[in-house]
Recover the amino acids of this structure.
């Protein structure tokens, strides 16, 4: 019996983590994080709830990584600190994972693998990586051979006929596995709604070449620091055009340095100039490679837009945002574009110049090609929100798969394969763990709810003074408001008078119980606020006995 258990990534973008379990042994495919939306104030990152793995720690024999993006590796330190197991991945993927582990002081057993070279995880799983084209070097999918049959996990992929590094998705190897019989295909659904072919990275190269030659002043290119195929294109064109390159953003500097050390970027030291020295160069001899194309407030591009730092954008400069907004980031990206336009520079982004970005994920036609090549007995769409999974399932139906072959899963589902048949067989505990932006600690759902209420209703501190011997109310409630509207601030004295009347209904005999007094004070203030403003703010009660 084989179990496939998604712990994250099915129903959201990010948190990718998938368990395979068979004969008392488990392996995990990826351990990714997700970045929070505005609905999670003060939260830095979100990681999967690994309760199921902690409860079965003795069965977990290893983790295999598809590629180095944080939505696939970012949760590794949090899992490995509790459940230390070997981690398998390609050279560049492990290098990116090691950066994150080192930052958090987590020691790990990292084991390098090569595509098309099988290896074992535990005694049950025979694993073979297969190269895929994505936006980061050394990305792979996996072919898992188990006692119940073969499972293919594509990882994030696209079918690029002419990739920058010359390494195409190994569709041939998946086809060979398909000829032998594939029990289940787990395939990336991110771009399942797009009906056109995902473009080749060569399109971006050609667009950059044209735009760079048009530019008269500085050129700023903002993109994901992990998109090293595109970074390589920018650096090569800068070298050809006689421009020096300054790196803006910590992750950009770190990733370029690491890629050069590992031999993935072959450019001379003389190409680079420190950011602090960049203003001394003629504008037509400078290129900035920056983070922040997703509108991140602390990233390099936001600093440029705010005119912070040594380089100041001017009319004649060109700023290129080489990415597509991640779902949920549309508003901050739009605000950043507005701010950049005020600098007078020429702002180029995908909506006005489509060639500055192509996706790293397969669209419908490419997803269909994989289904046709593999011809799986069962299909589970992965990596995407529910609408993406639904659309990918429709593509599988169009490819001829029968309803009983299609399994639409969500996080926590326990999918069981036995004697060639797949079915749902229950669920395991899953969820999201929010990490605090400042302390790194866990933010509970209750704390998140309270933070949201604070943002919506504000906070009121209510203080009363009670005579210790007679228990008479001597003063108060004295109200101090935070995050209130001007009208509400004006009403505080009237609200305090009403709250006093309500509080005095508590008999003196009961005022000896401090906990009861605080509870009644909170209730009185909130009821008074409700009477005057139709809302109930959070109340912090203070009881002073003299």
């Amino acid at each position: 019996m084989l179990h496939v258990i998604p712990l994250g990534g099915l129903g959201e973008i990010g948190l990718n983590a998938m368990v395979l379990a068979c004969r008392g042994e488990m392996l995990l495919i990826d351990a990714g994080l997700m970045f929070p939306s505005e609905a999670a104030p003060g939260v830095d990152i979100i990681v999967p709830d690994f309760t199921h793995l902690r409860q079965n720690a003795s069965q977990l024999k290893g983790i295999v990584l598809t590629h180095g993006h944080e939505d696939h590796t970012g949760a590794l330190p949090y899992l490995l600190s509790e459940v230390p197991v070997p981690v398998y991945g390609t050279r560049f993927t492990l290098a990116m994972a090691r950066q994150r582990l080192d930052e958090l002081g987590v020691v790990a057993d990292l084991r390098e693998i090569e595509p098309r070279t099988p290896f074992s995880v535990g005694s049950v799983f025979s694993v073979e990586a297969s190269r895929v084209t994505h936006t980061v070097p050394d990305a792979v999918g996996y072919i898992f051979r188990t006692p119940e049959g073969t499972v293919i996990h594509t990882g994030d992929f696209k079918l690029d006929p002419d990739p920058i590094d010359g390494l195409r998705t190994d569709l041939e190897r998946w086809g060979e596995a398909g000829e032998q019989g594939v029990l289940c295909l787990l395939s990336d659904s991110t771009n399942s709604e797009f009906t056109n072919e995902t473009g080749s990275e060569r399109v971006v190269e050609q667009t950059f070449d044209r735009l760079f030659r048009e530019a008269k002043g500085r050129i700023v290119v903002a993109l994901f620091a992990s998109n090293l195929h595109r970074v390589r294109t920018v650096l090569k064109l800068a070298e050809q055009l006689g421009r020096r390159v300054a790196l803006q953003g910590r992750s950009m500097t770190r990733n370029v340095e690491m890629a050069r050390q590992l031999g993935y970027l072959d450019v001379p030291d003389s190409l680079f100039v420190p950011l602090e020295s960049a203003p001394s160069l003629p504008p037509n001899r400078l290129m900035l490679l920056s983070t922040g194309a997703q509108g991140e407030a602390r990233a390099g591009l936001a600093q440029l837009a705010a005119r912070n730092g040594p380089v100041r954008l001017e009319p004649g400069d060109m700023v290129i945002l080489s990415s597509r907004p991640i779902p949920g980031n549309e508003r901050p990206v739009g605000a950043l574009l507005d701010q950049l336009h005020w600098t007078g520079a020429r702002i180029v982004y995908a909506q006005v110049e489509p060639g500055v970005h192509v996706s790293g994920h397969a669209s419908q036609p490419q997803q269909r090609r994989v289904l046709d090549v593999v011809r799986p007995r069962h299909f589970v769409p992965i990596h995407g929100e529910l609408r993406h999974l639904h659309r990918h399932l429709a593509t599988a139906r169009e490819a001829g798969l029968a309803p009983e072959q299609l399994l639409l899963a969500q996080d926590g589902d326990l999918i069981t394969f036995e004697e060639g048949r797949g079915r749902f067989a229950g669920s395991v505990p899953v969820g999201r763990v929010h990490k605090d932006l400042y302390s790194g600690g866990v933010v509970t759902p209750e704390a998140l709810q309270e933070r949201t209420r604070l943002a919506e209703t504000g906070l009121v501190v209510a203080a009363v003074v009670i005579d210790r011997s007679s228990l008479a109310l001597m003063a108060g409630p004295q109200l101090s408001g935070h995050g209130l509207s001007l009208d509400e601030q004006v009403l505080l004295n009237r609200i305090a008078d009403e709250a006093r009347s309500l509080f005095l209904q508590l008999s003196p005999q009961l005022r000896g119980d401090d906990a009861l007094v605080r509870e009644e004070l909170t209730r009185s203030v909130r009821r008074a606020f409700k009477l005057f403003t139709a809302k109930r703010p959070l109340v912090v009660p203070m009881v002073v006995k003299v």
Notes: Residues 514-533 form the longest helix (20 residues).
